[in-house]
Design brief:
homodimer, about 120 residues, mainly alpha, 3-stranded antiparallel sheet, 3 strands, about 10% strand, DNA-binding
DNA sequence: CTGAAATACCTTGACAGGCGAGGTATCTTG
DNA sequence: CAAGATACCTCGCCTGTCAAGGTATTTCAG
């Protein structure tokens, strides 16, 4: 089944920026790409996605403009800015460090002293 | 500098359970172990820690009891339960899957279709 | 002896991100 | 014509984090 929300929390921005690194895109399509890439195990919920777009635009990491397609529903396209790219690389560095730490912490919580009572039930 | 909270968010429970897999321990010590293991780059804040203890105990993943040390401040020890161990293994499986997906999504957001406008500024 | 720091616990209230539910409008297809 | 896909958006709740504040005990420098 799908990944729990909290494991994803905080990564939404990086995911969206990564998608936009490939070129301008719009909400619905980015969402679809996520589902496809993960074989349906992960989906950016719409409310989350659009909230993130607004957050990212406010931060100056993306710009938006309306598409001019004559056919189909109107689309709001997003483009990553220079600041956005820099932010993305920073997020990736953070992610690498954090996941390394997490791996270490979760593999071995390490109370290390090992003297106290260790009775189990 | 320290890792941002949101990257760690949701992993607190797994971290605590991992620590308790090594044997019973108490809040202050677990916290110290985290700081030591990560060279100070990550710290479980006290409020977060004690909130998590209550959450985990309520879920039946840990049990608690007061230590009987004659010296020093009183300590509340925590022990992981069978349910807690199972939960820990489940969390680890989830983490493995989620981090794999995340890695994929963040490395390549993949709008894949690559037909639309791709102008950048 | 005194006062600061360390050990050890705990609660309250605010905040931020995720998302269920609900809504709008257009186009396609049976 | 109705249903479903495409495409956008908002409101309000929930949950986990944490700054700030608090208690009590022990240790140790001055």
């Amino acid at each position: 089944m799908s990944i729990t929300a909290d494991l994803i929390r905080g990564h939404t921005d990086a995911i969206i920026l990564a998608a936009l690194l490939q070129g301008d895109s719009y909400g619905y399509r980015i969402n679809r790409a996520m589902v496809d890439l993960t074989d349906g195990r992960y989906e950016l919920k719409e409310a989350t996605l659009y909230t993130a777009f607004r957050r990212l635009e406010e931060a100056g990491y993306i710009r938006s403009y309306w598409g001019d397609e004559a056919t189909g529903a109107r689309r709001r396209y997003y483009a990553i800015t220079l600041n956005g790219k820099n932010a993305y690389y920073a997020m990736m560095r953070e992610w690498r460090e954090a996941s390394g730490l997490l791996e270490k912490l979760m593999r071995f919580g390490g109370t290390d002293g090992g003297d106290d009572s260790t009775e189990q039930i």
